[in-house]
Amino acid sequence: MQARQLLVAGLGLLAFLGLTGYALDKAFASAALDAQRERLQTYLQAYLAGTELARTSDLIAPDLPPDPRFGQPGLSGLYAQAIGQGLSWRSPSATGRELPPAEQLSQGEVSWSGQPLESEVGPVYRLGMGVLWEVSDDRSVQFSFYVAESADTVKRQIDVFRRTLWVYLGGAGLLLLAVQTLMMRWSLRPLRRVIVDLARVERGESELLDGSYPRELAVLTDNLNGFIESERLHLSRYRNTLADLAHSLKTPLAVMRSRLDSGEVPADLRDTIQSQVGRMDDIVAYQLSRAATSGHQRFAAPLEIEKRAEELVQGLEKVYAQKGVYCEFELDPTARFHGEHGDLMELLGNLTENAFKWAKQRVLLTVRPIAGEPGRRPGVLIAVDDDGPGIPPEKVERLLQRGVRGDERVQGHGIGLSIVQDIVKAYRGEMKVLRSEELGGARFEVLIPPAA
């Protein structure tokens, strides 16, 4: 948002300052040209006021010209000349110089070039006037008087003005952009604070957005807090309902089992019912495990994996003590599972127990974090290797189906890996079944991605 606003403000400011500079530049150039004409007209009138006409029709210029440069031979920058009926006069500065061609003007006619005229002395601005000079009552002389000045004078003025103008406009633009940036940073500071607080909630470092926010953002933060509390309340109510359901179902199943064990039911019927009760018990356990999987939660607290994994493996090593299987660890202490405790224990429990069942002697549990974007919660990689017979690639898909076991002689119901798959999908993750490069058996690899 800040970048877009700065871009729009910068483009608007650039357009405004550009148009302003262009307008001021044109206005100054026009004013400088007008000043040039006024200056030449002043020189011309001063010359005419101090000039006399001899009986021989020769002009007698004043001893002191309007500007000393008129009296300096060479490229002085100011030049004067007069042409008329048998009359030709030049100022000392124009002597021997080829000035722009001069025309004979009628009385009172003014000639202004408006644009620089090329000449031997370089581009010049020139102003001329037609004059009718009465020498006597019966005699008058008509001539034209021209005054010219080098165009470099106006050009230097415009160049100096342009440099000054763009330096000041550029400085003003940078200053305005800096002020605009500070204003936007100050204005958007509460929104950035909301983003930081929300990221803390996502990482589990805070339960709610508990900062002090402006009135405009209070509605947003209050609704977010309400959503977080509603999600947690709904999950808690859902779990309580599942616990009640589990208790309600397990109690009648236990009663049925006890009646079957009492011997009151005929043997053939007892075997059938016993089989169906066992199947119902497995289905209840599986469906409750699936329903209890909460899946991806944006505001889940981080759970430490290392301690829970060690406790779980200690129990499995006791159960499989006769096989002599032991588990090695490659656990990163910083790895965290952002989800529910039950989901983590299902993942670790099913994967490690499956490895213990098939391993000959060694199991390797690997856990490491997966870094995400800055400020976002990381993901986690959980991998379990064993030194068992492994799983052929063509059997992987069938093995992951619910109720299918790799070997019917191995105890179990064939739903553990299916539960793992459901949990992984709920967390938008991925599970791979590979060949273990370290131990030679199977490798079950679960990837829970970082938060988006």
Key traits:
five-stranded mixed beta sheet; Heat Shock Protein 90; 3 domains; 452 residues; alpha+beta; histidine kinase; 8 helices; HisK_dim/P_sf
Strand and helix map with partners:
Elements (H helix, E strand, L loop, with lengths): L1 H49 L1 E2 L5 E2 L17 E7 L2 E4 L19 E3 L11 E13 L2 E12 L1 H51 L12 H47 L5 H25 L10 E3 L1 H14 L6 E6 L4 E3 L2 H18 L3 E9 L8 E8 L9 H4 L16 H11 L3 E6 L6 E7 L4
Helix pairs in contact: 1-2, 3-4, 5-6, 6-8
Strand content: 15-25%
SS-based class: alpha+beta
Topology as H/E string? HEEEEEEEHHHEHEEHEEHHEE
Specify the number of helices.
8
From the alpha carbons, calculate the radius of gyration and give it in angstroms.
50 Å
Strand order of the largest sheet: 4-3-7-6-5
Helix content, binned percent: 40-55%
Provide the low-confidence segments as ranges.
Answer: 402-414
Tally of discrete structural domains: 3
Spatial separation of the terminal alpha carbons:
19 Å
Q: What is the mean pLDDT?
A: 80
Extended strand count:
14
Give a verbal description of the structure.
The chain has 452 residues and is α+β, with helices and mostly antiparallel strands. The chain has 3 domains: 2-156; 205-292; 300-448, Histidine kinase-like ATPase, C-terminal domain (Heat Shock Protein 90), CATH 3.30.565.10. The protein contains 8 helices and 14 strands. It has helices spanning 2-50, 152-202, 215-261, 267-291, 306-319, 341-358, 396-399, 416-426, and strands spanning 52-53, 59-60, 78-84, 87-90, 110-112, 124-136, 139-150, 302-304, 326-331, 336-338, 362-370, 379-386, 430-435, 442-448. The strands form 4 sheets. Strands 4-3-7-6-5 form a 5-stranded antiparallel sheet. A 5-stranded mixed sheet has the order 9-11-12-14-13, covered by helices on one side. A hairpin with a 5-residue loop joins strand 1 and strand 2 (59-60). The longest helix has 51 residues, at 152-202. The protein is rod-shaped. Mean pLDDT is 80; it is low at 402-414.
